[in-house]
């Protein structure tokens, strides 16, 4: 056994001998002072507290085992003495551990603070680099988006023009459909009283909904509008029971020219007069065909 080990064992044995003496009040006072000082030192260090409890428990168990091994248990009074002295040792060891660990923590706390400072500095530097990298990537992405936007400008302009042309075409077609239906409506309204029995208004609306609605193309609506006008005129002629007879083409032209002049003099808006003239032109064409075929 080395000299150091012998001194350690001798010191421990002297300490045990001191406990076996009768100066117990002094040892209790020392234990209380150590605990008071240690408690104040570790009030903000719960981990050191737990460590002190563990060491004090180990000291209590070690002392009890050594006492029993060397001196044995001498009755109940001897057992009480071992336990009592073991508690004193545990209390002294608890206070001593708290004080020593507090001193160590105090001495090494600047080192920990310096280490923490460098870690935080390194972390801030890394975050700054990552932030700069993200900003650079965002700038590059914005440049790419801007370049792509500029490159697609002609295509985008062309697409916009096509959309505008399509919208204009649809608007014009819708306007034509409405004009066709209006011309049929105006033709009917001119002779609504004569036609109300043979061609009621409900039937006219049914034709509008089924055959001249917006779901059909302008060409189809125009063709069907002409057919509807012919049917209205045919119904009107059947109701009146007569049809005007013409002896020559000049008579036909003269008659319809007067009718057109009369329509031009009517106090209607331009669209309405155009509808009347369109209907009259259709009647004139029909009269010429009938005259030539007769």
Please characterize this protein's 3D structure.
- The protein has helices at residues 3-20, 24-41, 46-71, 75-151, 153-190, 192-195, 201-211, 218-240, 249-264, 270-293.
- It is mostly helical and 294 residues long.
- Among the domains are: 3-107, no CATH class; 244-294.
- The longest helix is centred in the middle third of the chain and has 77 residues, at 75-151.
Roughly what percent helix?
over 70%
- CA-atom Rg in angstroms: 58 Å
Question: What distance lies between the first and last C-alpha atoms, to the nearest angstrom?
Answer: 151 Å
SSE pattern: HHHHHHHHHH
Shape: rod-shaped
Total of DSSP H or I helical runs spanning 4+ residues: 10
Quote the average pLDDT: 78
Low-confidence stretches: none
| Oligomerization | single chain
Major sheet summary line:
none
Q: Report the sheet-strand fraction.
A: under 5%
Number of strands: 0
> Which class of secondary structure composition applies to the elements?
mainly alpha
């Amino acid at each position: 056994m080395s000299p150091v080990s012998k001194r350690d064992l001798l010191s421990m044995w002297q300490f045990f001998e001191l406990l076996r003496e009768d100066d117990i009040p002094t040892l209790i006072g020392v234990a209380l002072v150590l605990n008071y000082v240690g408690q104040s030192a570790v009030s903000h260090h719960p981990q050191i507290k737990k460590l002190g409890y563990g060491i004090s428990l180990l000291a209590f168990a070690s002392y009890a085992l050594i006492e029993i091994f060397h001196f044995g248990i001498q009755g109940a009074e001897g057992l009480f003495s071992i336990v009592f002295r073991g508690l004193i040792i545990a209390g002294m060891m608890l206070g001593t551990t708290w004080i020593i660990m507090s001193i160590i923590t105090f001495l090494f706390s600047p080192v920990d603070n310096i280490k923490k400072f460098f870690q935080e500095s390194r972390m801030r530097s890394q975050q700054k680099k990552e932030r700069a990298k993200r900003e650079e990537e965002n700038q590059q992405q914005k440049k790419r988006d801007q370049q792509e936007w500029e490159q697609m400008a002609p295509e985008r302009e062309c697409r916009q023009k096509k959309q505008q042309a399509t919208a204009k075409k649809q608007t014009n077609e819708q306007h034509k459909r409405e004009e066709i239906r209006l011309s049929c409506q105006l033709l009917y309204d001119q002779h609504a009283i004569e036609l109300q029995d043979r061609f009621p208004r409900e039937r006219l609306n049914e034709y509008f909904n089924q055959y001249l609605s917006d779901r059909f193309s302008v060409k189809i609506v125009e063709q069907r509008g002409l057919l509807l006008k012919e049917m209205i005129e045919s119904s009107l002629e059947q109701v009146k029971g007569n049809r005007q007879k013409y002896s020559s083409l000049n008579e036909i032209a003269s008659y319809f020219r007067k009718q057109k002049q009369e329509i031009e003099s009517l106090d209607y808006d331009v669209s309405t007069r155009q509808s009347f003239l369109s209907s009259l032109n259709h009647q004139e064409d029909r009269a010429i065909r009938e005259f030539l075929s007769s």
